[in-house]
C-alpha cells in the first residue's frame, strides 16, 4: 500500500480514480473508498460492493439535501460520532430496481 500526499489523492480523484482514506485509530480506525460522484462508474460501485462491504454513501451539503427534500434518518442523533445519515434514496428516471451497479451509479451521479 502506498501512502500518498493529500494533493496526490485529490488529483487521482479528479482523474476518475478511487482512493482509500484511512481515519485515526481513535475514531473508527477504518478506511473509506472515495471517488468523484459526478464520474462514478458501475464498475467502481461493483468494486465498493465486493471489496469494501459497507454502505455506499454520498457526501452532500445540507442545502442540497433540503432542495431534494431528503430528510435525516433520525431527528435525534445519539450516535457517538454524530454521523448525519439520511434516508436511503434511489434515482428514478432511467433506473429499474435501484439495486444494480448501473442504477446505483446513476443515483450517485444525480
Give the key terms.
32% helix, 4 helices, globular, mainly alpha, 110 residues, DHBP synthase
Task: Give the arrangement of secondary structure elements.
Blueprint: H1 6-14, E1 19-22, E2 31-34, H2 42-52, H3 62-67, H4 101-109
Antiparallel strand pairs: 1-2
Helix pairs in contact: 2-4
Describe this structure in words.
It contains four helices and two strands, in the order H-E-E-H-H-H. The longest helix has 11 residues, at 42-52. The protein has a two-stranded antiparallel ribbon. It has helices at residues 6-14, 42-52, 62-67, 101-109, and strands at 19-22, 31-34. The protein has 110 residues and is mainly alpha-helical. The protein has a single domain (6-109), classed as DHBP synthase.
The helix-and-strand class reads: mainly alpha
How many domains? The number is 1
CATH top-level class = Alpha Beta
Strand order of the biggest β-sheet = 1-2
**Biggest sheet features:** 2 strands, antiparallel
Number of helical regions: 4
- CATH topology heading: DHBP synthase
Distance between the termini: 32 Å
* CATH architecture term: Alpha-Beta Complex
CATH superfamily: DHBP synthase
Nearest-angstrom radius of gyration?
Answer: 15 Å
N-to-C SSE series? HEEHHH
Short description:
This protein has 110 residues and is mainly α. It has helices at 6-14, 42-52, 62-67, 101-109, and strands at 19-22, 31-34.
Amino acid at each position: 500500500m502506498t501512502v500518498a500526499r493529500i494533493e496526490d489523492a485529490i488529483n487521482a480523484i479528479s482523474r476518475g480514480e478511487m482512493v482509500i482514506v484511512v481515519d485515526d485509530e481513535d475514531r473508527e480506525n477504518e478506511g473509506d473508498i472515495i471517488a468523484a460522484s459526478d464520474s462514478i462508474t458501475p464498475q467502481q460501485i461493483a468494486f465498493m460492493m465486493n471489496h469494501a462491504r459497507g454502505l455506499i454513501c454520498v457526501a452532500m451539503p445540507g442545502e442540497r439535501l433540503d432542495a431534494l427534500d431528503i430528510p435525516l434518518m433520525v431527528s435525534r442523533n445519539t450516535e457517538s460520532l454524530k454521523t448525519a445519515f439520511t434516508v436511503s434514496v434511489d434515482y428514478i428516471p432511467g433506473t429499474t430496481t435501484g439495486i444494480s451497479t448501473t442504477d446505483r451509479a446513476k443515483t450517485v451521479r444525480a
